[in-house]
Write a structure and sequence with these properties.
heterodimer; A: 114 residues; mainly beta; Immunoglobulin-like; four-stranded antiparallel β-sheet; 11 strands; B: 111 residues; six-stranded mixed β-sheet; five-stranded antiparallel β-sheet; 0% helix; globular
Chain lengths: 114, 111
């Protein structure tokens, strides 16, 4: 069964550094998402992406964050100048269409900012 | 503010028991409610509910939505240790792309 794949599974970085989290969505999916889950807290929406542009973003998704689909398969989340509070599990998700299909999540990247 | 509340937050039962997990929501312009199972990492999709009163079933798991009372339940019968996980409820509403998640129910099945 096709699945969303994310790399790396764990990333440790120092405060102030830039990180890029990578995702390969399911191949026939058109809508792409990033969510995050701080330890012990709810899963939170960050951003949605369709047709090569951001379609919605949350308040969390400020200028520190950016997303890109550099080719036909990868979907990346860049975090510039990481902060301690960016430490979380970051999930990529994708779906075939917006209305009648569920989101399928990847296994996540655990980001630890020291 | 859109809100999704799950109960109980934690539940410990013995193998073979039946459990009912609850999810209530305060979401305007509701579109769908989804249930996910989160074991170690990725939330894995269980059910997507859009219509009231229609039960969705997959093996020992079933779920139903009540759009009038704004809640859903997830039932698991004849529980097994492999059912131990966090069960997440999420709501999607019209005109938005995001899912709003509840805090999850941590289910532990003891042998």
């Amino acid at each position: 069964e096709p699945e969303v794949t994310q790399t790396p599974s764990h990333q440790v970085t120092q405060m102030g550094q830039e990180v890029i989290l990578r995702c390969v969505p399911i191949s026939n999916h058109l809508y792409f998402y990033w969510y995050r889950q701080i330890l012990g807290q709810k899963v939170e929406f960050l951003v949605s992406f369709y047709n090569n542009e951001i379609s919605e973003k949350s308040e969390i998704f400020d200028d520190q964050f950016s997303v890109e689909r550099p080719d036909g398969s990868n979907f990346t989340l860049k975090i510039r100048s990481t902060k301690l509070e960016d430490s979380a599990m970051y999930f990529c998700a994708s779906r075939t269409d917006r209305v009648n299909s569920p989101l399928h999540f990847g296994n996540g990247t655990r980001l630890t900012v020291t | 503010e859109d809100k999704v509340v799950q109960s109980p937050l934690s539940l410990v039962v013995h193998e073979g028991d039946t459990v009912t997990l609850n999810c209530s929501y305060e979401v305007t312009n509701f579109r769908s409610l989804l249930w996910y199972k989160q074991e170690k990492k990725a939330p894995t999709f269980l059910f997507m509910l859009t219509s009231s009163g229609i039960e969705k079933k997959s093996g020992r798991l079933s779920s139903i939505l009540d759009k009038k009372e704004l809640f859903s339940i997830l039932n698991i019968t004849a529980t097994q240790t492999g059912d131990s996980a966090i069960y997440l409820c999420a709501v999607e509403y019209q005109g938005a792309q995001k899912l709003v998640f509840g805090q999850g129910t941590r289910l532990t099945i003891n042998p």
